[in-house]
Amino acid sequence: MKAKWLTASLLSVGILTAVSGQASADTTEIHDIQGATHQSSYVGKTVQQVEGVVTFTYKLNGAYYFHMQTPDAKADKDSRTSEAITVYTGKYSQDVKVGDLVSVTGKVDEYYIEGYSDKRTMDLPVTQINARDDQGGQVAIKAENVTLPKTVQITKQNLPKSVIDNDQFTKFDPNEDAIDYWESLESMRVAVKDVKAVAPQEYGDVITVLKSRHTDTKNGGVLFEANDANADRVQFKLFGDNVRDYNVNTGDEFNGTIEGVVGYGYSNYKIFTNIENMQKTYKQGKATQETTKLKASKKKVTVGSFNLENFSNNTAETSNAKAEKLAHSIANSLGSPDIVGVTEVQDNNGAKAGDSKANESYERLIKAIEEAGGPTYQYVNIDPENNQDGGAPNANIRVGFLYNPERVSLKSGAPAGDATTAVGYNKKTGLTVNPGRIDPTNEAFEDSRKPLAAEFTADGKDLIVIANHWNSKGGDTPLFGQVQPVNLASEVQRQKIANVVSGFVSDVLAKNPKANIVSVGDYNDFQFSKLLQTFEKAGMANLIHKVPTNERYTYVYQGNSQVLDHIFVSKSLKNGAKIDIVHVNADFTEQAGRASDHDPLVAQVKLK
Q1: 89 has which bridge partners?
Q2: Separation CA 33–CA 186 (nearest Å)
Q3: Using one digit for the tens of pLDDT, what is the confidence trace for 399-458?
Q4: What are the backbone angles phi and psi of residue 472, rounded to the nearest 5°?
Q5: Contact 509, 537 (CB under 8 A)
Q6: Quick one: three-class SS letters along 318-379?
Q7: pTM of the predicted model, to two decimals?
Q8: What ranges make up the beta strands (E) of 382-480?
Q9: What's the whole-number average pLDDT of the chain?
Q10: 119 closest CA partner among 271, 267, 269
Q11: How confident is the model at residue 22 (pLDDT cuts 50, 70, 90)?
């Protein structure tokens, strides 16, 4: 079933027309099938002997495809209509090669070729001809070694920079809307000259911007802002051997022309190209992994925050190399903070069925940190109820703390909490349970991690630290998807979580306005979001605002550098507090030293 918005939008601008029966080879060209629209008016109709030159062949998910493009002499003069189309031949490869002039008969589809499980409700489809011979399709080679159609040059003059979509598909405007621009080139041969990577290679994808374009971050990335999603990112999908091992990091350059064909998959338009086309123009950039300059002292405490990306004691799932890199990051890159709030700690056996205990996972990490030259940490943890905190089934990801007992101690007096007991606060005695989960049975935390509060003592002063891992952005619609404007559905739950955690903080500060509170973790939202502003209104200052703009990111998603991890402090700690985002992961591949998909943070505070 086709997405309702497509039909509705196309009808509203009068583009969708009825086509009955079979289309004649005398009248049907590829640009007729494509049209100036996101959905072909030929869907469900059989087209006869449509001609094109084969420009690219590939295999995805066990099926064979090729792109064909109208010879230049037969192309129309409308730049809004693509002159190329994808041809699907099923699980058996057709005997075609690049440069063949072919005649194709088959049924026109709008198909979601490659994507996540929700691709039919989130992504855009690809116009294709289903030419499977067991379904009446046919591919005939008419000539070989034909001159390929000219490439369309993608330049700063024709690539929309600011707008992805601003009219909800009611107007097909490739000059202004990037989503329409790429659709107008669907399946066509294109060329891009001189680009630079704005993200590390992942799953065989390399995301770039034009080299002439200004970049925002110290390593050459582009910042995701409240009103700027960087519509001019150019994404490549690589074909060839070992593409997922290609070591490309943020800031690496490609000096020269890269040719390919336009495709779509996993919520993004991409230029499909062979890896050799990237390699021959490659130049390494200047990005290097960092080490913080913030240190603990007699009167100053350091608190870190680190998303460990599904860490467990199961070596089949968490390799020794990953454990060693994480340990090195904590011991050296982060300077061995006094306290580290950690997220995505899995139970002992990882994603295998069993209980939710994580003692062995913590002990493995602590041992690795000691071997990397760090202190012998102790850990603070409450095991969640089995399969109640989201993440991979049976893995039971949770938040917790590492702390250096030579520098700080877990405040004594209150009993330890459990998975369902809510922590409270007493002005005279401190936390009612230590550690304790914040309102863990509240519906706001359904299938999500429950924040953990722990009270520490350093130099005779008390410090409450909260570790957070708020619900993910799963369910949000993609930037280049079928729902425009983007629907941020996941914010609803995060706002509820923000209200609950803010309520706890407000209660503590109402009883003790001078309380020392630090809240860390993966909040899965941006510093400019309303829900994090809600948290600030409760009396917590986001230290992220102190970070220089070109370093203000902890995560890179689809080429957009953004802040998902934060450190908040109460007003008593704000003055003089320092923060450092230590860029060791987000800009780098595993080959370049990446240990997690998030960069860690560390703050230095003076307790009052």
Answers
A1: none
A2: 12
A3: 999 999 999 999 999 999 999 999 999 999 999 999 999 999 999 999 999 999 999 999
A4: -75, 180
A5: no
A6: CCHHHHHHHHHHHHHHCCCCCEEEEEEECCCCCCCCCCCCCHHHHHHHHHHHHHCCCCCCEE
A7: 0.93
A8: 398-403, 409-410, 425-426, 430-431, 436-437, 452-458, 461-469
A9: 94
A10: 267
A11: low
Rounded to whole angstroms, the Cα distance separating 227 from 324 reads 39
- 148-189 confidence digits (pLDDT tens): 999 999 999 999 999 999 999 999 999 999 999 999 999 999
Burial 53-64 (b: 16+ CB within 10 A, else e): bbbbbbeeeebb
**What pLDDT does residue 23 have?**
52
Q: Rounded CA gap, 439 and 456, in Å? A: 20
pLDDT of the residue at 25:
47
Q: Say which residue the tokens 């030159």 belong to.
A: 53
State residue 380's pLDDT score: 98
Per-residue pLDDT of 355-407, as tens digits, reads 999 999 999 999 999 999 999 999 999 999 999 999 999 999 999 999 999 99
Strand 461-469 versus strand 517-522 pairing type: parallel
CA 302: distance to chain centroid? 29
* Cross-strand pairs, 601: 305, 581
Angstrom distances, CA of residue 283 to CA of 93, 250, 251, 256, 368: 36, 12, 9, 10, 35
Amino acid making up residue 241: D
At residue 6, the pLDDT reads 41
Q: Are 438 and 453 in contact (CB under 8 A)?
A: yes
What per-residue confidence (pLDDT) applies to 486? Answer: 97
C-alpha to C-alpha distance for 591 and 436, rounded to whole angstroms? 39
Find out whether 508 and 463 touch, Cβ atoms under 8 Å. Answer: no
Number of other residues whose CB lies within 10 A of the CB of residue 556: 27
Determine the 3-state secondary structure of 173 from DSSP.
coil
Query: What's the rounded Cα separation, in Å, for the pair 294 and 280?
Result: 41
What is the H or E stretch that residue 492 is in? helix 491-511
Pairing of strands 300-311, 339-345: parallel
Q: Report d(CA 300, CA 509) in Å as an integer.
A: 22
Q: Which CA distances in Å does 408 have to 16, 44, 378, 403? A: 68, 69, 10, 7
pLDDT digits (tens, 9 = 90+) for 77-115: 999 999 999 999 998 777 899 999 999 999 999 999 999
At residue 8, what is the residue type?
A
Tokens representing residue 185 in the block: 């080139």
